[in-house]
Structures are given as C-alpha cells and as structure tokens.
Write a structure and sequence with these properties.
The complex is a heterodimer. Chain A is mainly beta. The longest helix of chain A is centred in the N-terminal third of the chain and has 25 residues. Classes of the chains: A mainly beta, B mainly beta.
C-alpha cells in the first residue's frame, strides 16, 4: 500500500504544481479569502442572538482574530485547534489527517475542498484561518531572526453626551447630591503581550469602564490600601517543559469535558459541525472580561496516552447583599456574586473584591485514536457563607462555604458515529448528565442527538452544558439537530429542543416546559455570495399574573423570529450584507406588536491598500422589550459589540482602520443611535435627548511589524 | 362631505410625515411600489445606483393624482445624462397645494464598479411651507444606493435616504425622517421578472411590496403588484414607441379608491 500512497503523493504534487501554484501566485499568496471574512461569519452559530452567550464570545473572538492574522499551520498539530474552536467536527479532522496520510501535506489551502467530509461552508470558513507548509517555513525563519515578539494595544472610548449618572442632582429640599457615578465617562483599556519563540509568553491587561475611577483603593486581601486600575489581569505561560506542556502562573481559564463539570468560558456541547471536543485545556486569560477566569497556577502534563491538568486558584470577587462583621469589617455572608465587573457607584465599590474564592481541581484524561475518557473534579471554598433566599424557588440552591463537584467524561469516535457523555455529581448528591450521539452518514449530512438531565439538587457554580436557562439545575431536555448539504450549494439546518423544569424558577411559580425549533436554509453562489433564510420558533410556559388569588396560573408564550440575510462580494474587496429580521411574540394575556430590523452593511478592503472601511445603516422598530432584537456589530480588533434594539429609530456605524506603518495599526469607530419615540437609556444611563454618539480609538503596536 | 373628510385625514397624515420618501414613476407604482431594483429613468429619484447603466440621455415626467383629488397631486421631472462610466441625474418633484407645499430638487450620480456592482448618490434639497404664516423650511440631505447582481437571475439592491439623521435644516424644530429600502429581483427570463422589496421609514412600520413585469417583444410591458402593510393593489402597462416610453398604472386602496399615474419618457439617442 505504501508505494501506492507514495505514487499518489507525487502525482498530486505534480498536478498541484501545474494548476494551483500559478493561481496562488496571481492571487497574492492566499490572501483573497480573507478580504471579505468578518468575525460574524464565525460567530453567527455561536451567538444565536442570545445575550447570555455574548459575554463568553469575547475570548473566542480574540482567537479567531489572532488566526486571521497569524494563520494556523494546517499540516501540523495546530489543525486540532480548529476542532476545539468548533470550526470543524472530529469526523472532518480525522478525514483531514487521513487525506494528509494518503496524499501528503496540503500544498494550498484550496486543497481543503477536496478533503472528504469537508463541506463548502466549512471549507470557506476555515480557509482564511490556515496556511500550508510554505508559509510555515517562512514563519519559522522569521521567528528565529526575531525571537521576541511584542504587542501593545491601547483603546479609549467615550460618549460625548452626558448621562444622568454623571450629573449632580438636587432633591426636594434643595440639597445637592453627588453624581451616582464616581469616575469619568471615559473607557480605557490596555493590553500588552510578549512572546519568546512561542515558548514563554506573558501578558497584562488593564481596564477602566465608563463611570469607574481611574485608580481604586483595594479594600480587601493582600493589596489592601493599594491603588490600582479597576481591572488588572496578567499571566506568564511556559510551554513544552518536558512532560509539562503548559504551565500558567497568573490568570487563566480551564475547559474540561463538555462543560458540565467545569466550563470557564466554554460553550455549549453541540456546534454546527457536531459535538465539540472533550476539552482538557488550560489557557491564559487574554480577555478584558472581569469574570470567568481563575487566578493562581495551572499546569497541563502529557504522559504517554494520559493527560493530567491541575489547577489552584485564589481570587477575590464581588458579593451582593453582604452582611459585614462590624468589629472586624469582614464579610460574614453574601447572597450571590456580581459578575458584571462594574464599579461605578459607591455601593459597587464597597462590595468590590469583598469575597475570596479558593479553588482546586484537576482532570485526568486517557486518549487514543478512537476514545477519550477522563475524571474531573474541583473543590471550591468561599471565605464567607453563601446565604440563599427564603423564597421557594431557591429551596435547592447552594448554601454554605464549600462545595465539591466530581464526575467523568468520555467520547468515542467510530468512523461515522460519535458518542459523547459527561456525568457530574455535587457534594449534596445532586447530579447532572449530558449524553449524545452524532452521526455522519454521508459527506454533507450530519445528525446529532443529545439528552441532558440536571437534577433539582445539583449545585455547581462553574458548569454549563447547553441548558436553556441560566442556572444549571432543575432541567431535563432533548436536543436534535440535522444538517444537510444539498447539490447546487443549498444547505439546510434544523434543530429541535425540548426541555422541562419540574421545580419552580425565579419569577415562575410553576413547573415549566419549553420547545424550540430552529431552521435555516442557505443558498451559496460560488464566490459572489450567500442568501440565508432562518426561522426560530420558541414556545414556553409563562405565569399569568393574578394578584387576587395568589395562585400561579400557567399560560404560554410563542415567539416567531424570521430572518433573511444576503452576504455578497460585489467586486474584489467590496462586500455587502443585507438583513431583514422580524420578531413576533404572542403570550397569554399580553399583546405585542411585531418587531422589525433592517440593515445594510458595506465593507471596503481594497487589495494592497492600508485602510479598511466598514459602514452600517440600520432601521429598527421594536415596540416591546420582550420582542427585542440583537445584531452583532463589527468593532475594533479584540472587541465586539452586540447591540440590543428596543424602540424605534436608526443606528449607524462607521469604522475605519488604517495601517500607516507595518508595525502600527489604528482604528476609529463612530457609532450613533437615534430614537424617535424615547430618550436614550434609563436610570443613571439615561441621556436627556434621543440621540447618543459613541467614539472609539484604538492603536496597536507590534514589534516586529 | 366624504371627500373633505378623506382629505383632512390624508393631509394630517401628510403633515405628520413631512419629508416622506415615496417612489416616483408609473413603472414602480405598477409593481406595488417596488422601486429599488429598477434601472429606469426614475432611478434618478428612487435609487441613484439604478441610473449607472444608462447609455443615453433621457428626459421624463411623471404625473400622479392621489385618489383623484387634485390636492394630492405629485408631479416630477427627471433627466439622466450618461458621462464616462457613470451617469448624472437631475430631478424635481412637486406636491401639495396652496396651503401645503413640498418641493424637491435632486442631483445625483450613479456609477458602475465592475460588472456586478452599481452604486449611486443623490444630494436632495427639500423646500416645504405650510400656510402663509409659518416660515419656509429648507433641508438638505442625501441618498445612497447600490445594486448587485448575485447571479444571472438574482439581484439585490438597497437605497437609503438620510441614513444617519445628520442633515441641514433651516429651522431647529424640523424633522426629516430617514428611510431604507431593501429589494431583491429574480429574473426568470428576459421577458419576465419578479421583485420583492421592503421599505422601512423611521416613523412607520415597514411595508412589503412585491410585483412582476412581463415584456412582449420589448415594446409592451404589463405589470402587477401588491403592497402589504397597508394593503394596496396595483397594475399597469407600458408601451415603447421609437424614442418614447409611455407608462401608466393605477393603485387601488380598499377605502380610498384608485390613484392613477402616468409617466412619459423621451430618449435622446
């Protein structure tokens, strides 16, 4: 067999040298697919327009941005990262390996479309993120010439209009009160990274949100009395130290299993291309997000077929409704954690970093070509008591100081079949299970089925596992997904999800059920563009308010969200996107008017030009908060915005990026929102007018450029 | 009496939506109001990108009598002058009566960028006056548009007027609502095409318009259209005779009745 494979390999190289190399020369070294790629092309499956997902997307975006600028080497182990980032399925990754084994390394990224199991959608998404060996060799030489690489990113943003929170107020007695917000309206952030031969890496992040003071006096912990920026985070990472693959000191995130036991910045278990990997990865916290990470030491070792990940963390967090010992000044108890990261008012500053959270955990995984299985555990302890509410919905909530969660996760790949499962149990014997199957009968078809059960008693502050609500207990459900790639570049996706919560939930004093169906049909033209029609139906139990009988009466609400979208490249470097979206909600006892959103995007990135322009014009009419719509917006590098549309008006955005020198990149973003039916914002965020403008400036310095 | 009642309602509505953008031309009206995908002379006012492909000088006029009431007349003049790879357009529109005047002057330029993309921009001057005592209102804004051929059959287009709400106005209280139109056209053959369009204006819920046109020997055109939200039916026909193009159409509203439109175009080849 081997000589035959070798023969094929030579044959392939000859064919590709004839056909592809002249083409790749003409198109300037594989840069063409990158021109019209926007982050939204990757994030659309992940975000699904739900606000609770959005806080986790930032780090994922950073990853995609990084790969767009520094493509992964598809002919190396770095290809596995595509799988972990949910861009390809395990089946597709295996087929890529099989292809390389048969025919040798890929000679062009365009060759990806020949890999069995790689549909056109996957290929188009992956192509801009990867390079082949030719580029890899040149990169290695470059790295050896300049072993140290540094990057500094500074950003500022502000709103010229004064918000109510920054104004002094006069009460009925004529007494003037200080503004609600103690700091200036400026947003400032800084990121600095240094890398030595990809072996040693370090980074630091600082951020001040609008309304926060420039420097805040630390009230608790080791640095008590010291003034620091509101958010400061950093890490040092060592790679490839013998059996230790990674060692991180500082702030980091961990992803274990399928996210049921421990998911710090991990996403749901099912992506568009099937289930995600059984994760056992630690990574430095490179995000400016002020929650979801750990602080301490984490290491990842590989010994033969076993991988061991261990971590220890001690981090101070913000607690709400705290009871403080009047003698010692220490917090005795608190009801929940505030993860917003906002410290703009005196109340928020008082509870800043008031609670200490200590964690220890680990993950031992055995893996071979068809099986991956492992044990997961983590222990968590607060320095104050968690006090739950006395209301019935919180009967099974966590109470106390410490908790232990342990479980196991496994995945088996059998050619066209994949099975995955994760089990988790908390110290109070509550348990959770996620189990599913993924089947790829033929190239371009994928069917997946996943069952989840989260016990009422299950208590875990760090687990997820694609539940339909924000808490990871009190739910069981079934999800199935079908994806078909049809001839003539038609694609169909359908998803159905049923869930049931047997116990009452916050503001819902009755057992609830939910059914969700999603459908999408898209038609692609070879290079010009795509038309997408998508539909979402959501039916869920609601409570009909009845103040007289004090008995909860069940009603239900139905949501129909329809979206039509066209994305097309008009001439090289000019891309457009058009969207029409409507959200119609019907609920027992309530009348809603339909919500509408229409927008047009234009992006210019002309070949060999140092600038790029992005423009959006958006009109919206969303009469009710319950019918609100979301749309992702392009933002400066490493940042992203998902704007919530509520009200009637227009939104416009103009973003310019310019690279005046090879080592300097600059961004300017101007955004405006105008409401014809209301003032902007509410409470301290309100502006005395119906227009709000936002200005952002960002500079990046890269050495070497 | 009924006539006065309808007039009072319509004029009140008209004053509320001062500066409202409306498609011009009998061809567009026959297609239910779909205008953003049309490459006719009236693209000068409807979507400046649509005039990018014009190859000869054209002049035209359009006359509309809203529900057969002289107070609701809309009259327009347009000229398109090709220049190099693009085309300049000039338009003027008049509506109203003695107590309410709305006049517009439009200068635009449309240009082809490559084989698939047409773009255009209009500068729009609006003069309005309500009654003898109120001061005259002058406003200046702009409209941008584009049309893209996705394939031989499918095309997409958009036009947006006063897109960000930044415009010149002579009186601080004046408002000029922006609007956006997004459209799609499917060309089944050279003789038949279908359009679907959505129009969203700041103060109003979106309208959806769809229409179809059938051509016989490139001389006779038959059009049908429906506008939803609110519902309005329309039909029309056109005849080309040498350098002249005559279009007429009629829109039917279930409560307000018929609105006739006529457009005449002359091409200087």
């Amino acid at each position: 067999m081997k000589p035959f494979i070798h023969h094929l390999s030579i044959y392939k190289q000859v064919v590709f040298s004839i056909f592809f190399l002249p083409i790749s020369g003409l198109i300037y070294g594989q840069t063409v697919p990158q021109q019209t790629v926007a982050f939204e092309d990757y994030v659309s499956e992940l975000v699904q327009s739900e606000d609770e997902y959005l806080s986790m997307v930032e780090e994922w975006r950073e990853l995609i941005d990084h790969w767009l600028e520094n493509p992964l080497h598809i002919n190396s182990e770095e290809a596995d990262l595509l799988f972990e980032a949910r861009l390809v399925s395990r089946h597709q990754l295996n087929k890529l390996r099989e292809y390389r084994l048969k025919y040798g390394d890929l000679l062009s990224v365009y060759e990806l479309s020949f890999v069995d199991g790689w549909d056109s959608k996957t290929t188009l998404r992956v192509m801009p993120l990867v390079s082949v060996n030719y580029r890899e060799k040149s990169v290695i030489k470059k790295i050896h010439r300049r072993p140290v690489r540094q990057q500094l990113v500074v950003k500022t943003a502000f709103t010229p209009e004064k918000k109510s929170g920054y104004l002094e107020k006069t009460d009925a007695n004529g007494v003037t009160k200080a503004p609600d917000y103690v700091g200036s309206p400026l947003r400032l952030s800084l990121r600095y990274d240094i890398d030595y031969r990809k072996k040693y890496q370090a980074g630091i992040r600082m951020e001040k949100d609008p309304g926060e003071p420039y420097l805040v006096t630390t009230q608790y912990g080791l640095f008590q009395g010291v003034k620091t920026p509101d958010h400061i985070s950093g890490f040092v990472q060592f790679n490839r130290l013998g059996p230790v693959r990674q060692l991180i000191v500082g702030d980091y995130r961990v992803s274990f299993g399928f996210g049921v036991n421990l998911a710090a910045g991990q996403y749901g278990a099912l992506s568009g291309s099937g289930p995600v990997s059984l994760a056992h990865r630690i990574r430095p916290n490179t995000s400016l997000g002020e929650s979801g990470f750990m602080r301490g030491i984490a290491l990842n070792c590989k010994l033969s077929r076993f991988t061991l990940t261990l971590f220890g963390s001690s981090l101070r967090l913000d607690g709400t409704s705290s009871v403080i010992d009047t003698v010692s000044g220490k917090v005795i108890s608190f009801s929940s954690l505030d993860q917003s990261g906002m410290h703009r008012t005196n109340t928020q500053l008082d509870r800043r970093k008031a609670i200490r959270e200590d964690m220890l955990g680990g993950h031992l995984v055995y893996g071979n070509n068809w099986l991956k299985a492992g044990f997961i555990t983590h222990y968590k302890q607060f320095d104050a008591e968690v006090r739950k509410s006395t209301r019935a919905y919180s009967k099974y909530y966590f109470e106390g100081r410490s908790n232990l969660v342990a479980g196991m996760a496994a995945a088996i790949w059998l050619n066209k079949w994949q099975w995955f499962s994760e089990f988790s149990m908390s110290r109070n014997n509550g348990w959770a299970l996620l189990s599913g199957l993924n089947f790829t009968p033929v190239t371009g078809a994928n069917i997946s089925l996943a069952y989840r059960y989260f016990d009422i008693k299950y208590q875990n502050w760090h687990g997820m596992g694609f539940i339909s609500q924000s808490r990871n207990n009190n739910e069981k459900g079934l999800r199935t997904k079908l994806r078909l790639e049809l001839p003539h570049r038609w694609n169909i996706e359908a998803l159905a999800d049923f869930s049931h919560s047997p116990w009452i939930r916050y503001n819902l004093d009755l057992p609830t059920s939910q059914f969700m169906a999603l459908g999408a049909v898209d038609k692609n033209w070879r290079s010009q563009g795509t038309l997408i029609f998508s539909f979402k139906y959501l039916r869920k139990t609601t409570e009909i308010p009845d103040v007289f009988t004090m008995i909860a009466r069940a009603g239900y609400s139905e949501q129909f969200r329809i979206r039509m979208e066209g994305r097309y490249e008009t001439i090289p470097g000019v891309a457009m996107k058009t969207r029409v979206e409507s959200n119609i909600v019907w609920a027992t006892g309530r009348n809603y008017l339909p919500a509408w959103l229409l927008f047009q995007d234009i992006a210019f990135k002309l070949p060999h030009k140092a600038y790029r322009v992005w423009l959006r014009v958006c009109y919206f009419e969303v009469p009710d908060y319950d019918t609100r719509l979301y749309a992702y917006e392009n933002d400066v590098l490493y940042d992203f915005t998902s704007f919530m549309y509520y009200g009637k008006g227009l939104r416009g955005i103009l973003m310019l990026s310019w690279t005046p020198l090879p080592w300097v990149d600059t961004w300017i973003r101007v955004a405006t929102v105008y409401y014809s039916d209301r003032k902007v914002g509410s409470g301290p965020e309100q502006i005395n007018g119906n227009r709000m403008n936002e200005l952002e400036f960002q500079v990046r310095i890269k050495i070497p450029g | 009496m009924l006539r006065q009642f309808i007039l009072s309602i319509l004029l009140t509505a008209n004053i509320c939506v001062v500066g409202q953008e409306r498609p011009v031309g009998a061809g567009s009206a026959g297609l239910g109001g779909s205008s953003v995908m049309l490459e006719d002379l009236w693209a000068v006012m409807n979507n400046p990108a649509g005039m990018a492909g014009r190859s000869h000088v054209s002049l035209g006029t359009s006359l509309e009598q809203g529900y057969f009431m002289k107070e609701l007349g809309n009259y327009a003049l347009a000229a398109a002058v090709p220049a190099g790879n693009g085309c300049f357009g000039l338009g003027a529109a008049f509506s109203g009566y003695a107590s309410w005047i709305d006049q517009r002057l439009i200068i635009g330029y449309g240009r082809k960028l490559g084989q698939k993309l047409m773009t255009g921009i209009n500068l729009v001057y609006i003069y309005q006056k309500a009654g003898d005592e109120s001061p005259a209102l002058h406003q200046v804004s702009y409209k941008i548009g584009a049309m893209v051929d996705l394939s031989d059959s499918f095309s997409l287009g958009f036009a947006t007027f006063n897109p960000f709400g930044f415009y010149y106005k002579s009186e601080p209280h004046a408002t000029l609502p922006g609007n956006i139109r997004l459209g799609m056209a499917y060309r089944y053959s050279r003789e038949f095409f279908l359009t679907v369009e959505i129009d969203k204006e700041m103060e109003h819920s979106p309208s959806i318009m769809t229409g179809c046109e059938m051509t016989f020997k490139e001389l006779i055109f038959i059009r049908l259209g429906i506008k939803a939200l609110p519902v309005q039916y329309s039909f029309g026909a056109g005849v080309r005779y040498q350098r002249f193009l005559l279009d007429f159409s009629s829109c039917y509203h279930q409560y307000l009745g018929f609105t006739p439109l006529v457009s005449i175009q002359y091409d200087i080849r």
